[in-house]
Design goal:
The complex is a heterodimer of chains A (115) and B (110). Chain A is mainly beta. Chain A has strands spanning 4-7, 10-13, 18-25, 31-37, 44-50, 53-57, 64-70, 73-79, 87-94, 105-106, 110-114. The radius of gyration of chain A is 13 Å and the shape is globular. Chain B has no helices and eleven strands. In chain B, a hairpin with a 2-residue loop joins strand 9 (85-93) and strand 10. The chains are: A mainly beta (115), B mainly beta (110).
Chain lengths: 115, 110
Amino acid sequence: ETGVTQTPRHLVMGMTNKKSLKCEQHLGHNAMYWYKQSAKKPLELMFVYNFKEQTENNSVPSRFSPECPNSSHLFLHLHTLQPEDSALYLCASSQSAGVDTGELFFGEGSRLTVL
Amino acid sequence: QKEVEQDPGPLSVPEGAIVSLNCTYSNSAFQYFMWYRQYSRKGPELLMYTYSSGNKEDGRFTAQVDKSSKYISLFIRDSQPSDSATYLCAATGTASKLTFGTGTRLQVTL
């Protein structure tokens, strides 16, 4: 495996379900990110982890719960989501999480549909 | 006002054409400028990375930044069908977060 891998690629869930998205990076990076991508909107930064510590929570609703057990793995736990949460969720990594870091390596994303 | 503005397109050009993709930004603190390319059903990948004003060339791609007018451009020469993708501009600075535009969808036709 190389780069950043995300599973599952597609997920359909009801509003009362609990599910998790998984991300793994094989690049030796120290920072990992969750982004939300919706149609006709810019990428929205959700969470940032640097050396396993959460350094940013961009006012994300508590129904999204991130977990970073080590620098290579990142999870996004989902519960009681709303239909407007349907989107492509992208995981990314970078060498570190300095504010001027623009070189992100993205996974292919998890397409989430909330019914 | 969005910090980075980008026309969503779609932009359709014939093969071999020169493509010009553009963004404007409002934050004067931005110093680093990027173009990401995103193919359908894939994640974005970094295409070009420039610092401050000026041009940077990589093969058929040229990135241009004009900080005086807060204008970011990506030029693609001799466009190919394989260039069909969504192009995202992004910017950041020492005191600001990485900020993306909405992306411009490009279609290069045979």
